[in-house]
Amino acid sequence: MSPFNGLQYGLFLVIVTALVYPIGGYLQRVFAGERTWLDPVLRPIERLIYRLSGIQPQREMNWKQYATAFLLFSLGGTLLLYLILRVQPAFHTFDPNYQSGPLSPDLALNTAISFGTTTTWQAYSGETMLTYFSQIVGLTAQNFLAGAAGLAVGIAFIRGLARQRTADLGNFWVDVVRAILWVLLPITIVGTLLLVWQGVPLNFQPYVPVKTLTGGMQLLPQGPVAALEFIKNLGTNGRGFFNVNGAHPYANPTPFANLLNMLAIVVLPAALTNTFGRMVGQPRQGWLLFAVMVVLFAGGLILSDAAEQAGNPLVAAQGVDVSASVNQPGGNMEGKEVRFDIGGSILTAITTSNGATGSYNSMHDSYMPLGGMILLVNMLLGEIIFGGLGSGLYSIILIALIGVFIGGLMIGRTPEYLGKRISISEMKLIAVYTILMPLVVLMLTASAMVSSDGLAGLTTNGGPHGFTGILFAYTSSMANNGQNFAGLSANSPFYNITLALAMMAGRFGLGIVALALAGRFAIDVCRPPSIGKLPTDSLLFAVLLIGTTLIVGGLNFFPALAMGPIVEHLTLIGIR
Predict the structure, then answer these.
(1) CB atoms < 10 A from the CB of 147, how many?
(2) Which among 231, 260, 228, 230 is positioned nearest to 241, based on CA atoms?
(3) Half-sphere exposure in the Cβ direction for 253 (13 Å, CA)
């Protein structure tokens, strides 16, 4: 690792760590209904929304009611977006560039579900296939709504661990309103203005024809780009205005814009660990979860940097110098932006693969096998390293509960977490949560590998790399991430439908199980700590949590990884 890359990675983690405490406290006050500095402006708006929509903010919900509201809200937004995409030719009055028609039914369905689940898988080219109306009223609005719904579920899960002797987890509608008004909207306004300052377009102008250096003609896309670019990251959605996403200079023009976008992805999920510690009354618990996330995040950075900086051995065998020097970055620069270099590309790739946000600035299909495998593993671990809004927190706590159960068996005591007993009923829910991802991902990957429709998508790559591309697509969809290996042609009825199924399983299957578990914990009583219980705020438990994460992920997915990136790497270095 070069000193510059190490400095870049370290500075990013220092900034994130510095923001965890103040933002975590702010989130705690917002969802507890306590006073914030935005209240004079936002409280009247909040009351007006409640009055117009008939919401009773004092009326709380049990986990079934909360899950039902979450499901109906998400499906309603998905249906509305589907209709917008299907009838978009009727709304192209203010879009002088639009020449396409409505998206096909299967592509529109896939796109609507992907935005409704914060996956935002992009099997379309935004600048050529969508109108300004679809981009703003459809996609941007859904980024706010779906992101707020995910954050609300995460807060409800924390309440389940913080409360006792009650079935109530809060009011979903109140949590969504507060998530939008107090969290997503003000941060997005500031972030969007900063992106405009950095050169990201925010207009409704026609595309600009320009002559290239070779004498040809090219259309430079315009549009309300900045309005979509920041909230896509903050709401952990990820898919951009342009087909190449953050690699486009209009979407991500400068290193500062790149840093700003990466912070937008990570800071809120990271700060939720502090919010969790505050709400359960044990701040050390939150800091331990954050520390585990940082360790795993840093590990991914180191391994991926090493894989990409080593370069391609087949290129080196041709006499090409792939070492870094003052005159060249060295390593594997294929698919990477010169303005971000390997370090900036790796930081973004690790951030997006961990943050449930497919907002890439380099082409992951062109990474070395082990470099691409790290991104895949980050998602296969189940969003526990920062993750999405809300989902990252309850995902790592679910893994912590497995660690507590294993630790409890070792010392011969009934396992407890935060004084809440983990009985057979809780373990059944934890088991369902744990096996759902491998069940969906591996079954869908296998179905694609043995069907002609699935194999038809391998138009660029075959063999182990093609298998990795298919596995990556279903993993990304199940993790509600959205990034992909561009070598897979996924715009077909087969992939549009099967990927949408994975998205829904990742969003609703995992989210509803988490709410059910929170409901059981809320009813339980908090037992005082004793000398016979495993402390869950210690270094020993942090090691146990990391070990549990790696073991569970390895047992589930190592055979699939061996068939894809591992065998591809071995072939690349001459081992057959």
Answers:
(1) 28
(2) 228
(3) 11
CA dihedral for 514, 520, 526, 527, sign (positive or negative): negative
CA distance 293 to 323: 31
CA angle (165 as vertex; 516, 399 as ends), nearest 5: 40
Taking the chain (576 residues) in consecutive chunks of 10 residues, what is each chunk's mean pLDDT?
84 94 94 91 92 89 94 92 82 62 81 85 73 82 90 93 89 94 94 91 83 83 84 80 78 87 91 93 92 92 89 78 74 81 87 83 86 89 85 89 82 77 86 91 92 87 88 89 80 90 90 92 82 78 88 87 89 76
List the beta bridge partners of residue 225.
none
**Dist CA 508 CA 506 (whole Å):** 6
Alpha carbons 218 and 303: distance in angstroms, whole number: 39
The helix/strand/coil state of 220 is strand
Domain residue ranges of the chain, discontinuous segments joined by +: 23-268
**In terms of Cα–Cα distance, which of 421, 417, 400 is closest to 524?**
421
List of long-range contacts for 204-211, beta carbons under 8 Å, 24+ apart: 204/94, 204/95, 204/132, 206/96, 206/97, 207/96, 207/97
For residue 230, give the amino acid letter.
F
- CA gap 368, 311 in Å, rounded: 8
Tell me which residue of 379, 353, 564, 372 sits closest to 475, measured CA to CA.
379
**The pTM is what?**
0.90
Q: What is the DSSP letter of 508?
A: I
Rounded CA-CA distance 117/394 in Å is: 16
Q: Using CA atoms, how far apart are residues 480 and 500, in angstroms rounded to an integer?
A: 10
Which residue type occupies 451?
S
Alpha-carbon distance of 507 to 495, in angstroms, equals: 18
The contacts found for 409-418 with CB under 8 angstroms, 24 or more apart, are 411/532, 411/534, 413/532, 413/533, 413/534, 415/534, 416/527, 416/533, 416/534, 417/161, 417/536, 418/161, 418/280, 418/282, 418/285, 418/526, 418/536
Strand partners, 217: 211
Whole-number CA gyration radius for the chain: 23
Gap between the Cα atoms of 235 and 147, Å rounded: 4
Tokens of 43: 């409280």
Amino acid sitting at position 380: L
Are 404 and 536 in contact, with CB atoms under 8 Å apart?
A: yes
* Residue 182: closest CA among 139, 148, 142: 148
Neighbouring CB atoms inside 10 A of 464's CB total 20
Tokens 């259309």 locate to 219
